[in-house]
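Can anyone check this?
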Amino acid sequence: MKDKPIVFDSSVAQNYDDLLGAFMFEPFALDLLERSRIASVENVLELACGTGRVTKHLSDLLPSKASLTATDINPGMIAVAKSRVPSAEVKWETADISKLPYDDNTFDLIVCQFGIMFVPDKVKALEEIYRVLQPGGRVIFNTWGPISNNKAWQISNLVVNSFLGKEPTAIFNEGPFCMNDEKTVLHQLEVAGFKNKKAVSVRKYSEIENASVAAKGFIIGLPTLNLINDRIPHLLPDVIEKLEEKLSMDLGDKPLRTSFQAWVFEAVK
């Protein structure tokens, strides 16, 4: 199972965006856009576009001459993204980062928000990115920092594991954090061929209307829901209730406030 990508079906993808999008992902999407320096680019590729939060900003702000191709391995994610970004100028494609269907030296900018972590072979994914970048082209992507620096994630992990056990949920609860060490990722970039590279830590403070919405997001907005439905479907309400209780206790309620930490990596071919 660890050699397979994580799949978000359409219902999970919509919940992911509705419940967690503004809370967890929009602040980092804006940060990534600001660092992308898109004024002079011509051919942009977004990988793991998810529900289209970065895509929307790129589509709105790219120069009129620039092209944008947005990809994800999950058709369910692309379906949600298309509803957010109705622009006919965006080319949507289902694509695996480790086997990109593009010619060498095609893009001058590649952007990826919280996606490379889920590719089984990280170096292969980075090699593919290097291959399809033009000489002098840039890649910018972010990954979550350690789970201990992301309290809401950590609480969710502990609660879900208390119901299911660590082993069955490891791919979902640890997967997002498997590239949390910046030195390891910088080394992977070097192995893939990148020489000019850097990493910066970014922390964003965020709030959500209440602990109930956050709890639902972490359970029915992530593929962990599939495990719960497969193993203990009758306990789904109990898992959500327990997580709401723990989130409220540790992070407050109405609103719930917390912070998230990520790494942003930039590299030039």
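Reply from J.R.: I decoded it. The domain at 10-268 is CATH 3.40.50.150 (Rossmann fold).
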